Amino acid sequence: MGIHLTAIHWVYLAFIVLIITLLIRRRDTTMVCITGIFALGLLAVGSLSGSVSGVFESFIYATKELMGTIMIISIIVAMSRVLIRTGINETMVAPLTRFLRTPAMAYWGIGLIMMVTSFFFWPSPAVALIGAVLLPVAIRVGLPAIGAAMAMNLFGHGIALSGDYIIQGAPKLTADAAGLPVTSVMAASVPLVIVMGTVTTFTAFWIMRREQQLGTFRDGLIAANNTKHPLTEPKDEGEGIQPISPGMKKGLAIAILLLFALDVATMFLLNLQGGDATALVGGTAVLILMVITLMAHRNRGLEQMTSYLIEGFMFGFRVFGPVVPIAAFFYLGDAAFTEMFSGDALPEASHGIVNDLGLALANTVPLNGAVGAVTLTITGAITGLDGSGFSGISLAGSIAQLFATAIGSGAATLTALGQVAAIWVGGGTLIPWALIPAAAICGVSPFELARRNLKPVMLGLAVTTVVAMFLI
What we know:
Layout: H1 7-24, H2 30-45, H3 48-86, H4 88-93, H5 103-121, H6 123-140, H7 145-163, H8 169-178, H9 182-214, H10 246-270, H11 274-297, H12 301-320, H13 324-331, H14 335-340, H15 353-362, H16 369-383, H17 393-407, H18 411-429, H19 436-442, H20 446-471
Helix pairs in contact: 1-2, 1-15, 2-3, 2-13, 3-6, 3-11, 3-12, 3-13, 3-19, 5-6, 5-7, 6-7, 6-11, 6-19, 7-9, 7-18, 7-19, 7-20, 8-9, 8-17, 8-18, 9-18, 9-20, 10-11, 11-12, 15-16, 16-17, 16-18, 16-20, 17-18, 18-20
Organism: Paenibacillus campinasensis
Transmembrane segments: 6-24, 31-54, 66-84, 104-121, 127-143, 150-167, 187-208, 252-271, 277-296, 308-332, 369-390, 430-447
Protein name: Transporter
């Protein structure tokens, strides 16, 4: 099951280390990622023209992969703009201010709501729904936008997605690869998910509050002038806005919430997940945007509809612009490499650059319970570097089976540990383009959000790994 690592693997690994180092040091990594793509292309095709073309093609590949997320964020922002300018948004969130009165209540309230919603529908559509409704409330009671992003991110893309107890996509993949029943992997993951979630969410909140008290807090806002966000800026009844009566605002607010609630019910009844669920939310937001724009602008509604969409897309692409080159590089670690360059450049038995690196690590360590747990955590984290979280968990399951056979126990625990590590790293808490939905809907830099998540997630993985050692 061993794999021969080539120069391509080592160059990719070297650039990963360099990129992570620069991110930690708060430096921009765009040029480094482009250089990495060029270097990998040169090694793969051996021609200058092919490697230069590969840079552009990798951008196209990354943009296609991210387009669904770009669209939902842009549309939600466009819809929110008209709701804010008409004052309907204030009417929608007013009842919630009774429950989310403090920054702490907002952080934990948003997090728990996000977690429950994500268990049923996965995090991406949940971010759009929850962010549009609860973010203005959180900002109003004093929770920074990046605090709301952390809550949605850690509870949704972290806790809910790593356990995946309702949809069961993640445990099914890892269990099948490890030759185990899905129920055994899910049962083994419960204590690990609880420990991981508890450590990360409490640590993240404590660090944020401590920095606020010391005066060293960075809000990470990327909206205009770093002072406001398109979902939370004060309403602006500018040119062409027709006043809407308080009664009509209340009726429209209730209708909008009912429409999104109907979306949730439809997702549940029709078993819509991932992209299908996101598309339903996005389509609903477009229809709401159309109706409210016509009501607010009357005979100027046709033109204003386009203006709101332009505002939304400008925001979406401003958020995603810096991320595309980085995503393009990391996507090369998986299927994108063979799609853009020759598959012959990698060994015949290759499962992709990232998976090859994880497999090579697993084959070079001694086998016992403690080392097995550490190796599965590192392997899961490495395979999560492509930003999907799911592409490498089958490999984690296979390696867990090998280790458990050699050790004589702990197959389910090791499998669950690899799953938790892969999804927490790649599913949307550390890789900048994977956590873009939460960052974008809150108007904060995905890089700043990734940096803020780094210490809590690393500490959580360390504690969870130690717990797993005792469970094996």
